[in-house]
Amino acid sequence: MSKPQSEFHRADERRFLDERGSSSSLTPNGLNPATILEKAVRERIVDSYFYKEQCFGLNEADIVDRVVEHVDFIGGVSGIAQKPTPFLCLAFKLLQLAPSDAVLEEYLNFGGEKFKYLRALAVFYVRLTRQDKDVYTTLEPFLEDRRKLRRKGRAGTSLTYMDEFVDDLLSKDRVCATSLWKMRKRDILEDLDMLEPRVSPLGNIEDLLEEEDEARKNEEAAANGHKDDSSGSFPL
């Protein structure tokens, strides 16, 4: 006797993208994870060869292996055909898996060149799913990460850096073919006592400006003194 149609296993991404709505819980910032990526992009992802071959049935640990093996650039879609990148396919898989903060912390803290794209994937996912105050506190420490990244888009491949990518996530409206939800500005969160003022690793900006101004004045004084000495008359 055959099973009722409702009992057949459905591919996890199709279940996730059920047009009647997602049964998964909302992300911490209140968004539906099934609709964070735009519909056209989602459809390209689930129809892509990489997603079908490499992303079916993954768990949080498998994500690490797939990033190390297959991700060597960041980006959303590439080429004339707007093919979804492995980076974006794995970001979509993370939206399905909904990893905990503890798992994300592990992703973020893997060091070395081998895992730099895992960190890039994690900061992208945090930007998509976490509340604005948590986005700032999680991502800002990586503004000091100067490791090189390759970025691929419709126009080809270019060089960027981890700190630039993080800054894009904090300041731009669209990154990696994805429209980012609108966060409140940092100064607003500071005024609401939700964030402490950010201290630059370079120091207080006012002190830096004063030091620059003092150094410039000293240079000008030294230059004027040298000019006065050279313009004096020589004895006969």
From TrEMBL:
Report the GO terms under cellular component: spliceosomal complex
**Chief subcellular site?**
nucleus
Coiled-coil residues: none
Q: Compositionally biased, Basic and acidic residues: which spans?
A: 214-230
Q: What InterPro entries does its record include?
A: PRP38
Q: Where in the cell is it found?
A: Nucleus
Alphabetically sorted, this entry's keywords are:
mRNA processing, mRNA splicing, Nucleus, Spliceosome
- Please name one Pfam family that this protein belongs to: PRP38
State if Nucleus is listed as a keyword. yes
| Example of a GO biological process term | mRNA splicing, via spliceosome
Query: Where does the record place the region Disordered?
Result: 206-236
Family label: Belongs to the PRP38 family.
Protein name, per record? Pre-mRNA-splicing factor 38
